Amino acid sequence: xxxxxxxxxxxxxxxxxxxxxxxxxxxxxxxxxxxxxxxxxxxxxxxxxxxxxxxxxxxxxxxxxxxxxxxxxxxxxxxxxxxxxxxxxxxxxxxxxxxxxxxxxxxxxxxxxxxxxxxxxxxxxxxxxxxxxxxxxxxxxxxxxxxxxxxxxxxxxxxxxxxxxxxxxxxxxxxxxxxxxxxxxxxxxxxxxxxxxxxxxxxxxxxxxxxxxxxxxxxxxxxxxxxxxxxxxxxxxxxxxxxxxxxxxxxxxxxxxxxxxxxxxxxxxxxxxxxxxxxxxxxxxxxxxxxxxxxxxxxxxxxxxxxxxxxxxxxxxxxxxxxxxxxxxxxxxxxxxxxxxxxxxxxxxxxxxxxxxxxxxxxxxxxxxxxxx
Length: 373
Fold this sequence. Notes:
Layout: E1 6-10, H1 15-19, H2 21-37, E2 45-51, E3 54-59, E4 66-67, H3 68-75, H4 79-99, E5 111-113, E6 119-121, H5 138-148, H6 154-166, H7 177-199, E7 209-212, E8 215-218, E9 224-230, H8 234-249, E10 257-261, E11 267-273, E12 277-278, H9 285-297, E13 310-312, E14 318-320, H10 349-361
Antiparallel strand pairs: 1-3, 2-3, 4-5, 5-6, 7-8, 8-10, 9-11, 10-11, 12-13, 13-14
Helix pairs in contact: 4-6, 5-7, 7-8, 9-10
């Protein structure tokens, strides 16, 4: 089909871990072969090789496949495709548990979905000796629900559990109304804590940032006008930088951060995306309702945000300027206690419809013309 093979390079930090890279590459190839022998969809390993001082695993490509979260973001409005994928995912998890070959690092990024909507397993990391992360149990349901909740609907997550149960998976599935309510509450709190942890990686070289001396650069920055703001202290600049990080990690539309300067004169550079305009409340009533509903779904609270902190993009969606707001630092706001800025048009049916839709869905999908999925 003309697609190029996928090359996974192993380059662990530290001499001891680096010495084990070859073992890890061969072990992953063996795990993929085992999955395939058990009848699971998994990319076929082509070869393990040592090249330019690094061990590499060469895999067959899965053309057009996306990690599960990105696939859900793309097809979210297509209810039929989401239903089919949820059923396939539940069946896959049941078969995987039945096989006893647990994923040592279970997270949605280790499931690829091809254009036909079929899930594939990748990265067969061995189960750590004393870890229970990948083993069947209530904690794994919470973890799975938490890690896909910002990319999926409650209905999708419930269908995954029902499909697992119907496939006679060995792990009791949370399918009753009481179990679902408890699961969703615990998953929301789990995700809130995870994002708090993940914001810390924005202060070091990571998958989100690159540190060069006294400067931290964000990766994957959007195009637009660069803004630079100075701060009286490193602590103040760092605090604002972490607000950008927290909103970004939660998938809440905002101006993207660019660089944090922690030298003699602390400063923060951010991007004002091309084509944005100031929020016009009467014109953007549904979009701001959707944005605030998404924020509440994540359990976040902005402290007295002004209307002029918000902007509207060319596609009609709302963004916030993280440097102009303050995020309340505390446990997630209860779902039953939504908080609104004083200027929010709570008397507007359009506003409340979009607020409730976003709060109930658990993912950021731009408002549709009539407020329905």
